[in-house]
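Task: fold both queries, return tokens.
Query 1:
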Amino acid sequence: MIDYYEALEILSQPIRASDLPHSLDHMRRLVEALDNPQHAYPCVVTAGSVGKGTTCHQIAALMNDHLNVGLFTSPHLHSFRERFVINGQMITQVDLTAGLQIVNQAAKKLVTYYSTFELATALALWWFRQQAVDIAVLEIGIGGRYDAVNIVHNTLAVITPIEYEHAAMLGGTLESIASHKAGIIQAQGYAIAAPQVAEVEALLREEASSQQATMTIEPLSTLAVKACANLIQRGIIPTIALPDTSPDVQLMGRMERRSLDGKTILIDGAHTPNSAKRLRAAIEQLNPTATVQLIIGMLRDKSVHDFLAEFDHPRFQITLTQTSSHRALTADEIGQTAALKQAQIAIQPDFQTAVDEALKASSTLIVITGSLRTAALTREILGLLDADALYESRRTRAIFEGKNYLAKLK
């Protein structure tokens, strides 16, 4: 019998850009070996560039008091178990370990390589059946059309704003990225999308038309409500009272506000130009005039210049640093790409030192952003985890960013 961390070692199987896109045939074989657990309940599938995780949590939150709701999201911040939730409760270490062994045995018999996300998706679908969920809300990992989650026959596709991201894996243009995400719209299905730029909306409408699917465009602020209303109208879920706007779910590392030594610290995993705009708007509300200290650590394959341009103003004191991921840009690399003209820029390669120096500075507002990895590391440094959670977080990061994992990338 293996323990939880040995199970995570089994799950630690990187995906490579050269492997994408590929067909979903191998993923279909895996769930067939598990007797197709995804057929046991209806599924809502969400894709997009920003807000898809939050939207998934909002949809689940609207139903949690009335139904047994499975929620599968990614990435995690501290515990891999954050990805698997039923009615707000994470999967236990024991259940994850037991389920992963069943999934891994099936994968071994197929003699096929499965990535971390593919194994995790199969595990989520299997666990949700074991727990007899009434409905599952599933977040696409990367793209959509060839993403492991897209093996399910979704009862509703939800698409949040689409931006330029994961270019190396998704074709390099906004149109190719949108095409991948539009792939969750299924034949004769139903889809709800947030407002998009013109070329993306046109592509989504074309996909819906070709699939003979019904699609509506709804404000992002009501996307989760409209999704649940659609499910109610079609008899997928029972009638429940719905608010006018989507609920305000407080997620770790997403617009998370903390106070420390008289300073306000805003932790946000923003990493796209539009998410930078939303973060800038939040900063203006918190502190419209005074100097603001920003700490920014970003990953590769992001629009670094466009993200940082939102903060190119004399009142922003920006420290560029390196977060904890094998995909992290160095502080110098971010600086070379930024080319900012007005903001005050400092380079501090060590993340801990960058945070310590910001806490000693005169600014009363500190904003730490650039990726969810940056947000996770910040939460650890600020002591926001109890001893058990901190231990699990560090052990998990060592598995998914350590030497053994990096060796598998070669």
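Query 1 returned. Query 2:
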Amino acid sequence: MALPLPTSLSPSKVASFKDCALAFRFSNIDRLPEAPSAAATKGTLVHRALELLFCEPAPGRTLDAALACLERARTEMATDPELVGLGLDAAAEAAFAADAEVLVRKYFALEDPRTVHPIGMELLMEARVGSLTLRGIIDRLDLDADGGLVVTDYKTGRVPGVAHEQSRLGGVHFYAFLCERVLGRRPSRVQLLYLSQPVAIVAEPSAQSVRGLEQRTTAIWEAVERACAEEDFRPRPSELCNWCSFRDYCPAFGGDPARARELVGAG
């Protein structure tokens, strides 16, 4: 019996399928619960703090204001299952908050938020490509000095090595495609702001790069369709396995994927 198809693809889902098809299935088709991640939760917190910062008038977007926004974001998330599920004790919570503060402070080494002209934040965009719905959330959409669109994506993890940089830039062209389809304009620039270093990776999307994204995403969707039809999602062991929530069900680690289906059925 064929597995149900996912309802859409996002940059993270595309990356997940390319990284490990079996983990993609567990997360997006079987929808197995995943343990909260300190890194992901920290990213959510910092994203929210920067979103709040850009709700302030331009002259008020100072470091002090950003730290106040971070504190407000922490208060908002105090009872969020994503944070509560980490089970942090007082010392670990203090370290978590300190790490988030470091990321917010480093943001200011990348740009002066008082000079940015945002026109949208946390924008959900989606577009159809054949039978597929492409969906993505843009952290911040700006206008540059010439009136061009600029997509800004905050990254709180490690800067990718040279070998992985191009795969991460695939998300850049994904956002450019969505802007072109939804807004009728291709961004003049897309920037990935890695707060941990800090470093910015900037790309200028072209008609060719956007067309290539559409072709690659269509090919990935066809691979997902085949895998669902044949129930054939294979693991791809890598260093990412060290952080995977699904190792107990993975044959690469002696697990049985059928157990995952039993877990879903029991729910």
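Both queries returned. Flag for query 2: The first strand starts at residue 117 and ends at 129.
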